[in-house]
């Protein structure tokens, strides 16, 4: 008997733990998204726009790669490698269709701290000047890139460890105001780091707390050393870049292909510098020798990992947060979903694998992602096509960039950061929507300026959590009771053939960044639960029950249902009487629910709204001014629906948002 039991247990154990073929396929599709979208790629519809976008992206990748490599205190050629390998790895493992991974200003600035600390500039005279090492570069340059590669490797390991621990979903504590302030402050740091090239000055590397102010103090103390030629060329480059890009933006609907002004400027400036010998005549600093080819892979130095752990954490957190924000924005814009944890794996592997090919830390950049938007990219194929052109530059065109002036390259960096710098305009929005978020934005920006991007990010998260913890105890007594869901079904027969379903949901807790996503999830769960509990008896009832769920779900609408009930209308009433306070993320989620429902012909009405909520929602989103949205009470909203002469079925659910843990 005992042997039979053991045999039975062993059989059950083998069935439970033996992976099936379907399980392996599903796991591969989940962890290798390219296996999911590549077989369904539409060559006829997507190849042309992806090719055009890939060419334009390659121009951005090359220029930003050269510039951000210099920003990272390494030789410019390593920026070309950093624009190639991370893009390939992310296309395989990443889920963002419009996310262009490569060199990134913020991660380059962070890694530069480690490079300048471990291999300072004064060591250049102590190292051998022979060009017998990799790519014919000096030992000093190779020591510097090994430090940057070590930062990239350890940063990627941290991101993969976060993936294993499933910490991707923990990024909800990083709110939009914190990300906006951190990236704006970091962009200000990047612009400051380019001042020496814009002015043609020789300046020692300055970093650390208040380093931002020390740089400008040094500039004003040595203002006489500014090279007028470099300053004029920088101003001319900035004016041309801004003017042409604004014209491209204005006439992008009338012209099929925008002018690659970055590429044109690089060619023109390099040719002019070569013809006039500006390097020797005017003393302008140029990019210099760009070696051809890709070196053999080599492991980053493991003996210095402990020395770069601070910068590695900064690269892992800042790079991931900025990249995830862009991925979520593109997913929201083009109606697809991404997995936060899978993005951790994709960026972690991008940094780890690329570190073996002498790459600086990588992440997604706002300018490149916006470029993919404007050029009409459809899939990740655009990034892969850009890699082909980057390879052409590495193997053929790279040496021709020798004469490119550094002031022109710095101008391209500054103009490329325009998208981050104009986030100052968000201050007005935050002030009108939620003044506490305005204060968090300002304080996070100040901390980023005074210290660093990772310090500002940490400060912003701590402040956000502290504000929520400080406000929640005052509202716990309001939402402490757990009310059961109540249902009221009212059926009225009218002469109209229109069938209308109304669902009323009561919000009994504050709506802030901690529970904004959960609010949407719970709202959908209540709808699904109601539909599951009330099975229809005929086709009309079935159509009635499934309409609101199909309209609000993230997936595609059911075509059969839509066709079978063409005159069907739906309404959703949100009772905000228990909505004690909110923040910017809560308002954003409410507006998102309203806009999604509006796009699916579902009317959303809000009852018992405070004046501050009405003002915030009106300012934040482009709400429909023709139809009334806000009502004094639920009965007033129902009367409005009833006045449209449609029969309705009224369901009242009490939605208790989850009480937030005191972190």
TrEMBL record:
Keywords of the record, alphabetical order, are: Anion exchange, Cell membrane, Endosome, Ion transport, Membrane, Transmembrane, Transmembrane helix, Transport
- Give the family, as the similarity comment puts it: Belongs to the SLC26A/SulP transporter (TC 2.A.53) family.
**One annotated GO biological process:** thyroid hormone generation
Gene Ontology cellular component annotations, sorted alphabetically: apical plasma membrane; basolateral plasma membrane; lateral plasma membrane; recycling endosome membrane
What name goes with this protein? Anion exchange transporter
> Among its keywords, does the record have Ligase?
no
Lipid bilayer topology: Multi-pass membrane protein
Residues that span the membrane, as ranges: 66-93, 147-165, 203-220, 226-245, 257-277, 304-327, 379-397, 402-424, 444-469
One Pfam family it belongs to: STAS
Q: Which reaction is recorded as catalysed by this protein? A: oxalate(in) = oxalate(out); nitrate(in) = nitrate(out); hydrogencarbonate(in) = hydrogencarbonate(out); chloride(in) = chloride(out)
A Gene Ontology molecular-function term?
Answer: sulfate transmembrane transporter activity
Q: Where is the STAS domain?
A: 492-641
Kindly list any coiled-coil regions of this protein.
Answer: none
Q: Which organism is it from?
A: Pongo abelii (Sumatran orangutan)
Specify the domain of life of the species encoding this protein.
Eukaryota
Q: Does the keyword Transmembrane helix apply?
A: yes
Q: Which Gene3D superfamilies match?
A: STAS domain
Q: Where in the cell is it found?
A: Apical cell membrane; Basolateral cell membrane; Lateral cell membrane; Recycling endosome membrane
């Amino acid at each position: 008997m005992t042997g039979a039991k053991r045999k039975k247990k062993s059989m059950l154990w083998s069935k439970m733990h033996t992976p099936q073929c379907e399980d392996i396929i599903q796991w591969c599709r989940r962890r290798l998204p390219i296996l999911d979208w590549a077989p369904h790629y539409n060559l006829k519809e997507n190849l042309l726009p992806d090719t055009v976008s890939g060419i334009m992206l390659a121009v951005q990748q090359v220029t930003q790669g050269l510039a951000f490599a210099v920003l990272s205190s390494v030789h410019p050629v390593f920026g070309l490698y950093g624009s190639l390998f991370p893009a390939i790895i992310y296309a395989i493992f990443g889920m963002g269709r419009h996310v262009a991974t490569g060199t990134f200003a913020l991660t380059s600035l962070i890694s530069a701290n480690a490079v300048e600390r471990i291999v300072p500039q004064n060591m250049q005279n102590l190292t051998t000047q022979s060009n017998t090492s990799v790519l014919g570069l000096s030992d000093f340059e190779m020591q510097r890139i090994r430090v940057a590669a070590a930062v990239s490797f350890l940063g990627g390991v941290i991101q993969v460890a976060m993936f294993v621990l499933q910490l991707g979903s923990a990024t909800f504590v990083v709110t939009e105001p914190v990300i906006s302030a951190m990236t704006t402050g970091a962009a200000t740091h990047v612009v400051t780091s380019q001042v020496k090239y814009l002015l043609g000055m020789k300046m020692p590397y300055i970093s650390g707390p208040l380093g931002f102010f020390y740089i400008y103090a040094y500039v004003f103390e040595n203002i006489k050393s500014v090279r007028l030629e470099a300053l004029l060329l920088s101003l001319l480059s900035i004016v041309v870049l801004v003017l042409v890009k604004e014209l491209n933006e204005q006439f992008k609907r009338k012209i099929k292909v925008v002018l690659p002004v970055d590429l044109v400027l690089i060619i023109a400036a390099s040719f002019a510098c070569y013809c006039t010998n500006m390097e020797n005549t005017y003393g302008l600093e140029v990019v210099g020798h760009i070696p051809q080819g890709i070196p053999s892979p080599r492991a980053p130095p493991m003996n210095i990992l402990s020395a770069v752990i601070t910068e590695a954490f900064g690269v892992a957190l800042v790079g991931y947060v900025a990249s995830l924000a862009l991925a979520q924005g593109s997913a929201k814009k083009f109606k697809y979903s991404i997995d936060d944890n899978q993005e951790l794996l994709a960026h972690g592997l991008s940094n780890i694998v690329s570190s073996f090919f002498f790459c600086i830390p990588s992440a997604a950049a706002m300018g490149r992602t916006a470029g993919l938007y404007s050029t009409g990219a459809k899939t990740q194929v655009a990034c892969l096509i850009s890699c082909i052109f980057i390879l052409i530059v590495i193997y053929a065109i790279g040496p021709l960039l020798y004469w490119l002036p550094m002031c022109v390259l710095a101008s391209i960096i500054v103009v490329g950061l325009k998208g981050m710098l104009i986030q100052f305009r968000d201050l007005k929005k935050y002030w009108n929507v939620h003044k506490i978020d305005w204060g968090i934005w300002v304080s996070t920006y100040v901390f980023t300026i005074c210290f660093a991007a990772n310090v500002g990010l940490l400060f912003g998260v701590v402040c956000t959590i502290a504000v929520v913890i400080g406000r929640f105890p005052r509202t716990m007594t309001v939402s402490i009771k757990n009310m059961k869901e109540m249902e009221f079904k009212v059926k009225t027969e009218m002469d109209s053939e229109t069938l209308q379903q109304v669902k009323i949901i009561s919000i009994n807790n504050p709506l802030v960044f901690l529970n904004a996503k959960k609010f949407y999830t719970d709202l959908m769960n209540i709808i699904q639960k109601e539909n599951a509990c009330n099975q229809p008896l005929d086709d009309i009832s079935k159509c009635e029950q499934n309409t609101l769920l199909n309209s609000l779900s993230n997936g595609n609408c059911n075509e059969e249902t839509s066709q079978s009930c063409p005159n069907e209308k739906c309404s959703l009433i949100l009772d905000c009487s228990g909505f004690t306070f909110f923040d910017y993320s809560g308002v954003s989620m409410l507006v998102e629910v309203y806009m999604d429902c509006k796009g699916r012909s579902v009317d959303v009405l809000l009852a018992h709204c405070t004046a501050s909520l009405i003002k915030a929602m009106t300012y934040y989103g482009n709400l429909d001014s023709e139809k009334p949205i806000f009502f004094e009470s639920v009965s007033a909203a129902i009367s409005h629906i009833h006045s449209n002469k449609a029969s309705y079925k009224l369901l009242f659910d009490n939605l208790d948002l989850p009480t937030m843990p005191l972190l």
